Structures are given as C-alpha cells and as structure tokens.
Amino acid sequence: MLEIRNIFKTYDNKPLLRGISFSVSKGETVCLLGASGSGKSTLLRMIAGLEFPESGQFLFNKIDLAQTPPHARDFGLVFQDYGLFPHLNIFDNVAFGLKMRNVPLAKINARVAEMMDLVNLQGFEKRKVTDLSGGEQQRVALARALAPQPRLLMFDEPLGALDKSLKEDLLQELRSILHKTKIPAIYVTHDQDEAFTIADHILLLHDGEIIRDGAPDEVWQNPNSAYAARILGVGNVIEGVVNSANKVKTEYGTFPLNCKHKHSKSEKVSLLLQQSPSPFRRGARGEVEIKLKVEDVLFKRDQFQVKSRGDALSGEALSKGGLVIHLKDAPKVGQMIRVWVKVECLA
Ligand code: ADP
Ligand code: MG
What we know:
The chain is α+β, with helices and mostly antiparallel strands. It has eight helices and 18 strands.
C-alpha cells in the first residue's frame, strides 16, 4: 500500500528527518511516536502532498505520488484541533468531501447516515459544531475523513486536546473502527500509552531517524537503546562502568555484562533494570537480587510506586534519580528492601 522511501527533510539548513523509510499495509495502523518537534507533522504534511522532501519517495500501490496533487491522493486527515467548518452543521461537515466529489445527493444522505452510525452520533446531523463537546467534535472529524472512503487515514495527535478518560474511550473506539474498515492508517503522537494502545506497528522517531520499530510487544520487550527504554518507560535505565573483570559496576551492585556489543574497561554503559514479575522471588534465570533504600512511596492505582537508591557503593552514587519499582504493599520510607531484577546492557 503506502511505501515511504528514504525521506530527507531540512529546515533552515538543519536536518529534521534523515532517511525515513517504512510502509503501511492494508488494515494496518502504524504509529509514529516521537517527542514534540521531532518532525511528525512535517512527515504527515509531506505524505498528504502539502510539502516536499529534499529527497526520497512516497509510493502508493507502487505508484510514485510525486505527480499526484493533494486532493487526488484520496488520503484523509484528522488533526488535534478537529478542523471542522464552524459555519456548517454536522451533516454538511461530514458530507463535505462527498459534495466536492459531486456524489449524487441520495448517495450522500446514505453515506452520511452510515458514518454517523459508525462514530455513534446518530441524530446529530442538524446540530451546530459549536454545540458539541471536544470528543463529539473529534468523532465528526473522523466521520468526515472516513466518508469519501480514503485510501489512507492520517491522524495528527487527534486526542491531544481531550481529557484522559475520554481519550481512552475514543482510542478504543477508533481502534475498532480502523479494524472494521481496514483502512491503512498512520497515527502520530508523543504519548506512548496512546501509541501502544492503537498501534499494530510502532515507529520510534528520535533525532530525525527511526531508532526502533516493531509490534508493540516486541518494542516493549526489547527497546534496544537507552533513549527508547526511557521514553517508553519500559524499566529503569541506569549508568555503570565496565571493570577489569568485564562486569559493570553500578550504584545497585556489580552485574555481568551481558551484551552483544564489545565494551572496553572503564567504558560507561547504560543498563536496563526491569523488576521481576514477583519482585521478592527469583523469576527467570539470570535475574539478580539488589538491595535498595526506600526514599519515597507514591500511590498509583492498585500498586505503590517506590523510589529508591542503591546501597552497593555506600553513597558513591554513579547514577542520578534513583530507581523506580512497583509493589503491591507499601514499604516504609528509609526501609531497606531486596528485589529481583533482570539486567540488560542497552548499547
Ligand atoms: P512535531 O509534529 O513532531 O511536533 P513538526 O513537524 O511540527 O514536529 O516540526 C518539527 C520542527 O521543524 C519544528 O520544531 C520546526 O523547527 C521545524 N519546522 C516545521 N515547519 C517548519 C517551517 N514551515 N519552516 C521552518 N521550520 C519548520
Ligand atoms: Mg505535530
């Protein structure tokens, strides 16, 4: 379906996107996850044909889109600020793309009714845009994008303006609509929870490049870099130094260097520490027990988030910020606890 090949884009002599390549197949939702300012919206605008890269290609069904103007691409866009026409009622907003294509009125009526059903807004046709809540407006924006049966849907932080519970509901609904309609979609966000909920495939954008891509569970299991692990909140990323015995000395203890890369003595490395599923018992092979001093305890839904410091170097801390673990029962501040963790080298 959509294929993006080696896109380079520069603004004011500063490279923004450097060699972006990926594809989106039928029925697939690809999520581009990146910090604010990483070039996500720019990439969507280029796919829509509203802007151009310095080099690289966009192909749809193997046809290069360079000669296809934006309106002829048949791509639907949904933005954070909904982008509805305030002077038109809901019906006319949803019918807009169909009228532009000179679809006969009877067909427009049927299609709009179908779309209102799909987004759960039956009976809203005559209402004004300004009478709708943010969540309802975003449903209308989705219905409007879906009505002309686009070949691709693009979402640019569509839930960014909505509050948390509404966000979760709409996200689930969007997911089921995308699966039902089988329209390939690109969903852009800076929110990793959103990305993991909606995506069939995640692309992690950092410093102009895709530094990790895969199914949500793959990316979660193996973030592959300190940056990815940190932004995804996969576990704790700590710093350590390789010693002469080819082990890594950290604030939390000295660990074997299980790494596919070669590291020399005195080199600083990043390690990913993930707590065992039952943290007070040894889980998988290779896990180690570490000793922690509890610094703070926060209540988080059905568990406690414990901030702690390592005890191994008696005050000579190598990493800043401490370690975060999650426990069912709250320990006391100042208490020493021992937990089992999986330790991996990240680079
Ligand atoms: P994101 O959507 O990931 O937040 P954007 O694609 O909106 O990022 O923008 C990324 C960066 O590209 C911005 O920080 C800005 O510096 C630059 N940029 C975007 N559009 C333009 C433009 N039209 N002219 C100059 N610089 C731009
Ligand atoms: Mg943006």
